[in-house]
Each structure stands twice: as C-alpha cells, then as structure tokens.
C-alpha cells in the first residue's frame, strides 16, 4: 500500500493539483526507499497472486482517499468528518463479513483486546490525526510521511523482537527519511516574502494599492 506515495501526486496532477518539484523528488525517494525495504530482505518474495492485486487496489483507493481528504478537511472540522468515515467503513466491513466470512462473536480475550486497540488507536485516533494534519499540509506530503510506517515497524521489530534489517533495508529506511525531508529543505532555503514592503495606510487593512 506504500505505492500510494507515488500515486497521490500522479492522480493529483491529473486532477489539476500541481505539486512542486521538491514533492516529486521526495515522493520518488520515499518510493525507492520503500522498494529497498521490501525487496532488500534475505527472504525471497512469493509469486504474484490475488492478494497482491487487492493490495495494489488498496493503494489506489488510499491515494484517492488522501486527495479527497485534502480537499474536504480544509473546509470541515475533524470531528464532523471522523464519525461518518468510521461509520462508513464499519458498515462496509460488516457487509463484507456477511458475504465472504462467517461472523463469530465468541472470541478469546486477547482477540477482543486487539479489536479495541485497532478500533481506538489504529482507526479513531490515527485517522483523526490524519484529518487534522491534512488541514495543514498537502496530500502528497502526507503520503510521503506515511511511508515512515515500515521504518517504525522495523525499528520496533528490532527493539522488541530482536529482528534485524540487512544493509539494503537500512539504506531504504534512510532514503525514506531523506524523501520526507526534501520538501522542508526548499522551505528553509526559500527567502520569506510575507513581510509587507510598505506600512499600511491609516484606517486601512493593508498596503495602499493603485
């Protein structure tokens, strides 16, 4: 699903949302780093199957979601948008469960704890923060930041489970961090032009205009 980091600026470009060149460079670095994280392990990947195609479709859907969120988050409050999103996913997931699975309510305690953690932290808190962030930045940069997820997973896997990353995977993690930093480098090196060139006129709200 990390392919959405490339799909967001591409789809946004077709929709008329022109991203600046540092965003494209950052997206390319993040995508390349993600490829190194996935392909740089010691274990070979299996053959492409239906699950891989569904995951690719998920990446497309998530890219479209980020673009729509970029459009509507700036016009609405986070609270107003969060509940309908979670309710929609809950209803669609319930329908999918009835069609393709056999619902079971008698679950072990550990499973219910996982459900609560997933619903509270991974869904409610995470997507609430995502909506809050997209009120203040662009969808393309949000997609770049989200590629840090496998980096955090690798670090926690090392700290908690004793897992290790091979050389190319470490390079991939560094490349993702670099890609996330590229758009900020341009902002830091671009002179600010927000200061007024002349004081406002008495009784007015800004510089005099001809």
Walk me through this protein's architecture:
The chain is mainly alpha-helical. Helix content is 70%, strand content 0%. It has helices at 4-14, 21-39, 50-72, 78-100, 109-134, 139-146, 148-160, 167-189. The longest helix is centred in the middle third of the chain and has 26 residues, at 109-134.
Q: Which descriptor suits the 3D outline?
A: globular
Please bin the fraction of helical residues.
Answer: 55-70%
What does the average pLDDT come to? 76
Number of helices: 8
Query: If you compute it from the alpha carbons, what radius of gyration comes out, rounded to the nearest whole angstrom?
Result: 22 Å
DSSP E strands, number: 0
Largest sheet: none
- Distance separating the two termini: 52 Å
Ranges where pLDDT stays below 50 over 5 or more residues in a row are 191-210
In N-to-C order, the SSE pattern is HHHHHHHH
Strand content: under 5%
Structural class, from secondary structure content?
Answer: mainly alpha
Key attributes of the depicted protein:
210 residues, mainly alpha, 8 helices, 0% strand, disordered C terminus
Which secondary structure elements does this structure contain, and how are they paired or packed?
Layout: H1 4-14, H2 21-39, H3 50-72, H4 78-100, H5 109-134, H6 139-146, H7 148-160, H8 167-189
Helix pairs in contact: 1-3, 1-6, 2-6, 2-8, 3-6, 4-5
Short structural summary:
70% of the residues lie in helices and 0% in strands.
């Amino acid at each position: 699903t990390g392919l959405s980091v490339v799909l967001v600026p591409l789809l946004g470009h077709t929709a008329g949302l022109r991203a600046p060149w540092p965003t494209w460079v950052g997206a390319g670095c993040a995508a390349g780093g993600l490829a190194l994280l996935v392909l740089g392990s010691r274990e070979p990947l299996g053959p492409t199957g239906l699950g891989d195609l569904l995951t690719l479709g998920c990446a497309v859907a998530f890219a479209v979601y980020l673009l729509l969120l970029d459009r509507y988050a700036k016009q609405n409050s986070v609270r107003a948008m969060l509940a309908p999103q979670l309710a929609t996913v809950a209803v669609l997931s319930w329908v999918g469960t009835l069609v393709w699975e056999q619902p079971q309510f008698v679950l072990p305690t550990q499973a219910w704890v996982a459900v609560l953690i997933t619903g509270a932290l991974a869904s409610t808190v995470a997507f609430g923060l995502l909506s809050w962030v997209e009120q203040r930045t662009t969808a393309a940069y949000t997609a770049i930041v989200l590629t840090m997820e496998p980096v955090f997973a690798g670090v926690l896997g090392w700290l908690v489970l004793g897992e290790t990353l091979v050389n190319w995977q470490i390079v991939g993690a560094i490349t993702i961090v670099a890609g996330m930093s590229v758009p900020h480098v341009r902002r830091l090196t671009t002179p600010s032009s927000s200061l007024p060139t002349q004081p406002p006129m008495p009784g007015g709200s800004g510089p005099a205009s001809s």
